[in-house]
Design brief:
Layout lengths: L4 E4 L6 H12 L5 E4 L13 H4 L9 E4 L2 E4 L1 H11 L8 H16 L2 H6 L16 H21 L10 H15 L6 H11 L2 H12 L7 H4 L2
Parallel strand pairs: 1-2
Antiparallel strand pairs: 1-3, 3-4
Helix pairs in contact: 1-3, 1-7, 4-7, 7-8
Bound molecules: glutathione.
The site of glutathione has 19 residues, from helix 1.
Length: 221
Amino acid sequence: MATPILHIGNKNYSSWSMRPWLALKWGGIAFEEHIIPLGGEGYGQSAIKEVRDVSPSGRVPALHVDGVVIHESLAICEWAAEQAPSLWPKEPLVRAQARALASEMHAGFGAVRRDMSMNVRRRLAAEPSWPEDTRTDLTQLFTTWSHALEKSGGPFLFGQRSIADAMFAPVATRLRTYKVTVPAPAQAYCDAIFADAAFQDWERAAEAETWVIQTAEDLYR
Ligand SMILES: N[C@@H](CCC(=O)N[C@@H](CS)C(=O)NCC(=O)O)C(=O)O
């Protein structure tokens, strides 16, 4: 297999890119990354030319492996888990639960994604007052996390790092950015993500980026 190439967006803004990037790193899978600065013409309409050139959906992330393109963050994570099975928990029923949480993140938490777009280096001075659906999402998020953490004992959702954590890692940065009041077990979980070496590599790169996308706050969730 030739070295796969992961096409991603700006590390500061592209939450969907962070997820498979972490999974590949955690799986110890060698890959090259190619950043396409999002913004400009076609942005927000899946119509950026450089993105369309590498991804059939017009969105990143997209992984190129031996002439095949895998788009969709969760599908890339699944490919990574086929190379590195420890990316999912070993026990089948626990693995099913981890998959459920990863899917729940991929398909859900729409209000959090709408109101708290990822901006790794941003810090608000005070928590905004959230609409009801966002508060409902946050309650659901903390409940989901605390059930998993209580059962596993932490520090990650299923004990060891898994794809479920890769899917939720951008959310941890959002809670920090928007100064959300976070219950203690959820905060301990966020801190475990923030202490992760691969996460810190991504964070450093995000902080060093100079691109600014004004509209990203409304678009990238
Ligand atoms: N469901 C997709 C979502 C990917 C997505 O929305 N990517 C954004 C960047 S975070 C994008 O490429 N946007 C391009 C555009 O809006 O034109 C996945 O899970 O990979």
